[in-house]
Amino acid sequence: MVGETTNGTKVALMEAAATLFAEKGFEVVSVREITTLAKANVASVKYHFGAREGLIDAVVARMAKPVNDERLRRIEELEERGGATVRELIVAFFEPLCSQIQNSPLSEKLFIKLMGRVVGDRPYEFPKEVMGQFREVASRYVPAFMATCPGLSDDDVFWRIHFSFGVLANTLTHGDLLKKISAGKVGDEKLPVTLKRVIDFCEAGFKQ
Fold first, then answer.
1. Is residue 73 packed enough to be buried (19+ CB in 10 Å), middle (13-18) or exposed (0-12)?
2. How would you class 101 by CB atoms within 10 Å of its CB: exposed for 0-12, middle for 13-18, buried for 19 or more?
């Protein structure tokens, strides 16, 4: 019973922190704001995470791990099948992130805001655990793209993955700006529809 309560507090702290970080940014949210929203005491942050920075790392890891695990599962399926097209690799890389957005306890808009903060606002390195996951994903996807796109070096593929992720991240985090610039000609659409637009664009870029 004590263990369940302790674990419940840890999850509540991560969920409260994720909500506040998404709304306000990493630098301005205080430990007291987080514990107030989580209905926990201030000492619980030190107990579970060591410090505020440890809580930030835990929130980022909680976002990234399911995405990277699913990316690895999908590339393994494609490898076992005996190869993949460029589009199948891009889908395997991107769809897990969109699934995580849809399945997150945060609302879709808040999760996307938090992702934008993680990509653009953090002034320090990703936690080692998350960086290790990204490297493992890269070690599987880069050779797969090279096999599918003869003539591309590993350097070329890293850049194209980097550009492709930039397209996705910018599309998700700045959709409201696009609506304003287009004077309403671009409206709200379902995430799978937007994802297809991104995949179409990135597939063309990879094949260039």
1. exposed
2. buried
Quote the CA–CA distance of 9 and 47 in Å, as a whole number: 11
Kindly write down the DSSP assignment for every residue of 187-198, as one continuous string: ----HHHHHHHH
- Of 68-77, 78-87, 146-155, 187-196, minimum mean pLDDT range: 187-196
> What are the residues whose beta carbons fall under 8 Å from the beta carbon of 148, sequence distance 6 or more?
83, 84, 85, 86, 89
Tokens matching residue 75: 């590339």
Structural domains in the chain, CATH included, are 60-207 (1.10.357.10)
Helices 108-120, 52-81: axis angle to 10 degrees equals: 100
Residue 4, pLDDT score:
46
Tokens matching residue 106: 């945060």
Question: Where do the H-state alpha helices sit in the chain?
Answer: 2-24, 31-38, 43-49, 52-81, 86-103, 108-120, 128-148, 154-173, 175-181, 191-207
Global pTM reads: 0.86
